[in-house]
Design goal:
Largest sheet: 7 strands, mixed
Number of strands: 11
Structural class: mainly beta
Strand content: over 45%
Distance between the termini: 40 Å
Radius of gyration: 14 Å
Number of helices: 0
């Protein structure tokens, strides 16, 4: 069982910055991967950033160069630093944990989501 709690969302102007946090109930270094997803109204949920247990990261093209995913193992927390925000970034952002057993079985967990609104 993994519990995830997101925080840090809010209203910002275009070009501004926000840092989202995802606090986990277990060591984030023990999780196969942790990712940030977002879903805008009437649009499909998309993966925007992921960090693997070994530290490798991947980003969606739409946020590459602007967003950075990182983790603090001591605090059991994953972060998403968002810079140069655009109105198109407006969405509900959710934290995801992808866990694997020693046999390779997958268990996935989700946080409740946090709203990010970018508007002038």
């Amino acid at each position: 069982q993994v519990q995830l709690v997101e925080s840090g969302g809010g209203l910002v102007q275009p070009g501004g910055s926000l840092r989202l946090s995802c606090a986990a109930s277990v060591s984030v270094s023990s999780i196969y991967s942790m990712g940030w997803y977002r879903q805008a109204p009437e649009k499909q949920r998309e993966l925007i950033a992921v960090i693997f247990s070994g530290g490798r990261t991947n980003y969606a093209d739409s946020v590459k160069g602007r967003f950075t995913i990182s983790r603090d193992n001591d605090k059991n927390t994953v972060y998403l630093q968002m810079n140069n925000l655009k109105p198109e970034d407006t969405a509900v952002y959710s934290c995801n944990a992808d866990t694997r057993t020693s046999l390779g079985f997958r268990y996935e967990y989700w946080g409740q989501g946090t709203q990010v609104t970018v508007s002038s």
